[in-house]
Large ribosomal subunit protein bL21 (Nocardioides baekrokdamisoli), 100 residues
Amino acid sequence: MYAIVKAGSKQQKVAVGDVIQIDLVAGDEGSSVTLPVVMLVDGEKVSASGLDKASVTAEILGGTKGPKIIIQKYKNKTGYKKRQGHRQKYTQVKVTAINA
């Protein structure tokens, strides 16, 4: 059994026991977070409607950071150049239960 969940602006496929990275959520390590379900697959049965009661429960493991992204701006013949970096912050969670 697995589910497609919406976490922040992305959708991810999860099963019980999976460790995934989602957009930063507030909470302490060890606390649980509930993720809304977009689609639920149980063997041959695929459910995409009537999932108001379905949810995925996950335990927060901690925070992580994504790869460093370099942003550079440059304008020709004016001497203007700007360099900026960015690292996206994520929360690492472990899926504990899929409630149908």
User: Anything to note?
Assistant: Strands lie at 2-7, 10-15, 19-23, 32-42, 45-47, 55-65, 69-75, 80-86, 89-99. The chain is about 0% helix and 65% strand. The CA atoms of residues 31 and 65 lie 20 Å apart.
